[in-house]
Design brief:
Elements lengths: L1 E6 L4 H8 L8 E3 L6 E5 L3 E6 L2 E6 L5 H20 L14 H9 L4 H10 L5 H15 L8 E8 L1 E2 L11 E2 L4 H24 L3 E9 L7 H12 L9 E7 L6 H9 L4 E4 L6 H6 L6 H14 L4 E7 L6 H14 L3 E6 L7 H4 L6 H17 L3 E6 L10 E5 L6 H8 L4 E4 L4 E6 L4 E6 L4 H6 L1 H16 L2
Parallel strand pairs: 1-2, 1-3, 6-9, 6-16, 7-8, 9-10, 10-11, 11-12, 12-13
Antiparallel strand pairs: 3-4, 4-5, 13-15, 14-15, 17-18
């Protein structure tokens, strides 16, 4: 337990963000007196102390953002010395580090100046600063867009089973057949209203992404109905990119893959998360590593030449030997991209209910091994994001062979283009370029609520899109 006192300000959240890198959130208590840590702001100087360790900075007291970051830096420096612990990402707790690079490049900073800024202002380790710049440089060429152009996300909140780490709006496909059919009907209605509105207003579609959940858990007939409806409004054969997450090999078969190919899907995901049988059972999967290999080879036979595979570092009871086995199997398959996720314990996950924790040093060595393997396979890091509640202070990175980067993933993280999202728990992000701001329009998370309130979801979205059209 640590008791925290703030003097001269009330920037609790900023101080909490840094404390949470060293303490569990339930161990942190803010109070008025009797505290062990002091954070003091007098208008010209920030001081943070823990025990006999003191860190201080002179500041411009008129700039709130500078004050907040100064508080974070002094807290991080003092706590790092106190615990003798290195925090690779410094004070940068946001999920989109590369946006900083793009903003600094716009104002004319050189890459060397940007690197120094990341290390001195945000206190990033040199390797994380280098990674941030490398990813930003790799994604930059995909950030172009035409006027009145959007990308589209379609959410399918159903899976064969629920994995223990999952926090998404996901429901079992089995035993919910009527609910699934009603959901598809509502989604088709949203397609008709939103996509016809876009088409009638001359708004074109750049990339299209089916995610979830597991989109391929729908029946062949349901997938056909959705893609056929989409083709009435969007030329699926001429999209810059069309991704469909197969995700779980137990949801994929030959007929579904042939159908996806027919409708112009250019990129699919077949996500193992691990290639260790024991772990697959522990995380709630009902398929084997052989199933993963068989479905991957089937997709190749049908002609898919852009296949992504996701893995998670830090799964229950996995170690360096486990990740070694996973990466060796992926090397044999040679997918076009591999996304490395670091385990994050989400509030809505089964793992959180189990109070699961994983050794940080173990996860870091596993992550480093996986990233080195990706580079050995000729892949480059092309997009990156961070999450709260990770079991280690790392990041999620997408690696791909050159020319096989997922453009939608880059757009989602860079937030450079409006993304119209359809389905339950889908969040539309409308980009106002001239005002440098983003407006979010969220559909309800619960599937039944989405079905019952579909007209409300449609009207709210059209109203928001109409607003941006007339700016």
């Amino acid at each position: 337990m640590v008791r925290v006192g703030l003097i001269g300000h009330n920037f609790r959240y900023e101080v909490f963000q840094i404390l949470n890198l060293f303490y569990e959130k339930e161990e942190i208590e803010f109070c008025q007196d009797g505290f062990e840590i002091e954070s003091i702001l007098d208008g010209e100087q920030v001081l943070f102390k823990i025990g006999e360790i003191i860190e201080k900075e002179n500041i411009d007291g008129s700039d709130i953002k500078l004050i907040k970051n100064s508080l974070k830096r002094t807290a991080l420096k003092a706590l790092s010395r106190y615990f003798d612990k290195n925090i690779p990402w410094g004070i940068l707790v946001g999920i989109r580090p590369t946006k900083i690079v793009h903003e600094l490049k716009k104002r004319g900073d050189s890459l060397e100046e940007i690197k120094n800024h990341l290390m001195q202002y945000y206190l990033l380790n040199e390797d994380k600063a280098n990674l941030t710049i490398e990813v930003a440089e790799n994604e930059a060429k995909f950030l172009d867009k035409e006027k009145k152009q959007v990308s589209i996300y379609v959410g399918i909140p159903f899976c064969p089973t629920r994995c223990v780490y999952c926090s998404f709006a996901s429901n079992s496909i089995y035993g919910n057949e009527k609910l699934v059919e009603a959901y598809v009907d509502s989604l088709l209605k949203e397609f008709d209203s939103i996509l016809s509105y876009l088409k009638n207003n001359g708004i074109t579609v750049d990339t299209l992404y089916f995610g979830g959940g597991t989109p391929s858990s729908l029946s062949l007939e349901q997938i056909d109905r959705l893609l056929d409806k989409l083709s009435n409004y969007v030329n699926l054969q001429k999209l810059r990119e069309f991704t469909f997450e197969g995700g779980r090999p137990d949801s994929i078969d030959k007929n579904k893959l042939v159908l996806l190919k027919k409708y112009g899907v250019t990129r699919i995901s077949i996500n193992p998360q691990t290639m260790n049988e024991e772990t697959l059972i522990k995380i709630g999967r009902r398929h084997s590593t052989k199933d993963i290999i068989d479905k991957f080879n089937l997709a190749r036979e049908i002609g898919f030449d852009n296949i992504n595979m996701d893995i998670i570092v830090g799964l229950p009871d996995e170690d360096l030997g486990s990740i070694n086995k996973t990466m060796e199997e992926l090397k044999k398959l040679s997918p076009e991209s591999i996304t490395i996720h670091t385990m994050a314990i989400k509030r809505a996950s089964i793992l959180n209910e189990m109070d699961y924790k994983h050794r940080t040093d173990n996860v870091i060595s596993m992550y480093n091994y996986a990233t080195n393997c990706c580079r050995e396979m000729g892949m480059i890091p092309y997009y990156m994001y961070r999450q709260k509640n990770m079991v280690s202070p790392l990041e999620n990175v997408g690696y791909s062979k050159r020319g096989k980067e997922c453009i939608y993933n880059i757009q989602m993280i860079a937030e450079n283009i409006s993304i119209i999202s359809l389905g339950a728990d889908a969040i539309t992000k409308l980009v106002y370029d001239e005002e440098n701001r983003i407006e979010r329009v969220a559909n309800v998370k619960d599937v039944r609520e989405y079905i019952n309130r579909i007209d409300e979801m449609i009207n709210k979205k059209i109203e928001a899109i109409d607003d941006i059209l007339h700016k």
